[in-house]
């Protein structure tokens, strides 16, 4: 095993614990005598096993946390997760421990405390009362709401673990997922019982360095994440619990640097001062303990996505943007990608003449929108507006990197139209039309026309109407809109429909089909037709329906009645060849009427 830097403090002889600050053994609760009858006294060199099933690495690799506990679960005030957490840890213990040790590890008092937490999840206690309870505990006043019979004695359990750590073949290494979770469970469930919490924290202080030294062993990321969550809850605890929690947090950063370090760094930006200061102290302790020569002199931990301040220089902004890119290319993900995009947009607007800022900022946003499940319309619109302002020449770029910067901005604009869902994109385009200048509109219309050409099947008329309305409202004098955004007025649409209908009525091949269409589907439009066709359609309507159409004069009514009588006496010879009712004859008469009237409408 490789040596690890440790704190050079005195060690309690009977515990192997590194006390914090100036605390002495008087601060540390004395372990009570073990209640487990089958165990040997510490004076007895023979150690009786606690396992009925020996832990192995292969068995450990087969164990997985329930999905509800993976990631960064919020255990507090969630009764279902509290149950999942407790039952999962208990199930592992039941599978591996001898009966006596299992009973000692999971006494009924621990289950009672678990139930108490669940009750608190449904009946929230005001934060002020919680803090008062913590304060009274720090002063040595036992919490009145917990009966003595409900305070578990777990000291013998952790004493047995410490004894096993001293063995040459340490089986606890292959049981590390359980050990981490059990300690987290005890710290979490026994939230106002310092004896139990300290026993778990003391043991972790001895156990985690062993895991850190065994670098070839796979890291248990999800179990470590739960322990981090529980330790951060101790930000509001009394100073002793909080101090030892910080010590364990610093060790967890070293154990799982890839995941824990960014999380603790992100905690620095939280508005709650208790948590942010705890994270700051844990990071300081981590750096002093494991990187006394400074982080820059060694392999630094993965970077975080700290906000770019508004008062930095362009050089610092570029450095931070490059850090973002390297982190995301290494599969790191910012905790708040939307906020990060907003921050980058502001930075790019501030340094709009810096090609390096524009290039790296565009590349960052392009990566971010590709990993966000649902980008808000506002962010899509702001990003599109930014691209238009840069590509339309609002800011003049110079220097060797200007071409690369503009290419990166163009790639960002392309990514918006490629990645963002249609509904979100069209709403963003409409919002951009409302906020952009008229000088940028030709560029936007050109880009959207390209998009429409390949995606017209996914775009409906209502969405196009919204874009047209935005142009009418905010840029009424703009005349560069594409044809599909030129929306006709109702009068124009009706006039266009009648014109097309007349063409079909004057075509011998379509005259009768169009006549039936007009009569049966839109008879209210008949009076809008020119006079040389209107009378013909009025009479045809009377012929089909045996009803007078509103607006028919007496002459047309009489002609329609005569037509009905003639139809009743029609013969087969009248409708074929050159018969008086044949298609050719009627079409010729219609053309003659048209020429006689020579209408202008």
From TrEMBL:
Question: Which region ranges are annotated with the description Disordered?
Answer: 1-43
- In this chain, composition skew of type Polar residues spans 23-40
Q: Which domain of life is it from?
A: Eukaryota
Species of origin? Tritrichomonas foetus
**UniProt lineage:** Eukaryota, Metamonada, Parabasalia, Tritrichomonadida, Tritrichomonadidae
Start-end of Basic residues biased regions: 1-10
- How is this protein named in the record? Uncharacterized protein
Q: Sorted alphabetically, which InterPro entries does this protein's record hold?
A: ARM-type_fold (IPR016024)
């Amino acid at each position: 095993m490789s040596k690890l830097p440790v704190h050079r403090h005195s060690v309690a002889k009977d515990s192997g614990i590194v006390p914090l600050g100036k605390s002495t053994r008087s601060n540390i609760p004395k372990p009570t005598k073990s209640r487990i009858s089958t165990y040997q006294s510490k004076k007895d060199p023979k150690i009786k096993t606690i396992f009925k099933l020996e832990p192995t690495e292969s068995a450990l690799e087969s164990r997985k946390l329930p999905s509800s506990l993976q990631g960064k679960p919020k255990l507090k005030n969630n009764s279902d997760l509290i149950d999942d957490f407790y039952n999962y840890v208990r199930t592992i213990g039941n599978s591996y421990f001898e009966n006596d040790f299992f009973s000692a590890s999971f006494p009924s008092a621990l289950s009672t405390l678990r139930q108490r937490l669940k009750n608190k999840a449904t009946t929230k206690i005001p934060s002020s009362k919680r803090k008062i309870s913590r304060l009274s505990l720090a002063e040595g006043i036992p919490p009145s709401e917990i009966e003595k019979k409900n305070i578990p004695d777990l000291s013998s359990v952790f004493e047995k673990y410490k004894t096993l750590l001293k063995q040459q073949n340490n089986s606890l290494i292959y049981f590390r997922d359980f050990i981490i979770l059990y300690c987290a469970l005890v710290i979490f469930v026994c939230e106002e019982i310092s004896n139990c919490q300290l026993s778990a924290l003391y043991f972790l202080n001895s156990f985690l360095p062993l895991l850190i030294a065994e670098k070839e062993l796979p890291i248990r990321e999800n179990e470590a994440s739960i322990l981090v969550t529980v330790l951060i809850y101790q930000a509001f605890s009394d100073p002793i619990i909080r101090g030892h929690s910080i010590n364990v947090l610093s060790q967890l950063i070293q154990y799982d640097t890839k995941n824990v370090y960014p999380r603790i760094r992100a905690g620095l930006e939280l508005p709650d001062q208790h948590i942010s200061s705890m994270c700051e102290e844990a990071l300081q302790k981590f750096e002093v303990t494991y990187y006394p020569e400074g982080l820059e002199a060694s392999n630094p931990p993965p970077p975080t996505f700290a906000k770019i301040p508004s008062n930095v220089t362009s050089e610092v902004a570029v450095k931070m943007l490059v850090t973002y890119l390297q982190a995301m290319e290494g599969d790191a993900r910012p905790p708040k990608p939307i906020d990060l995009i907003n921050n980058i947009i502001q930075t790019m607007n501030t340094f709009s003449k810096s090609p390096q800022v524009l290039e790296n900022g565009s590349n960052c946003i392009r990566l971010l929108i590709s990993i966000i499940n649902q980008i808000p319309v506002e962010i899509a619109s702001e990003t599109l507006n930014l691209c238009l302002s840069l590509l339309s020449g609002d800011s003049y770029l110079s220097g060797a990197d200007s071409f690369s910067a503009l290419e990166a901005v163009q790639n960002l604009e392309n990514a918006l139209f490629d990645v963002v869902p249609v509904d979100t994109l069209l709403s963003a385009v409409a919002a951009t039309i409302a906020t952009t200048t008229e000088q940028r509109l030709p560029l936007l219309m050109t880009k959207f026309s390209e998009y429409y050409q390949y995606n017209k099947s996914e775009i409906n008329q209502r969405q196009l109407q919204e874009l047209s309305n935005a142009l009418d409202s905010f840029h009424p004098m703009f005349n560069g809109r594409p044809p599909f955004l030129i929306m006709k007025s109702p009068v124009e649409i009706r006039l266009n429909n009648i014109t097309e209908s007349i063409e079909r009525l004057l075509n011998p091949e379509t005259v009768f089909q169009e006549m039936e269409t007009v009569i049966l589907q839109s008879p209210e439009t008949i009076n809008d037709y020119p006079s040389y066709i209107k009378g013909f359609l009025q009479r045809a309507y009377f012929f089909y329906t045996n009803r007078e159409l509103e607006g028919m004069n007496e002459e047309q009514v009489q002609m329609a009645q005569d037509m009905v009588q003639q139809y009743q006496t029609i013969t087969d010879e009248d409708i074929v060849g050159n018969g008086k009712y044949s298609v050719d004859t009627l079409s010729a008469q219609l053309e003659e009427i048209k020429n006689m009237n020579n209408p202008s409408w």
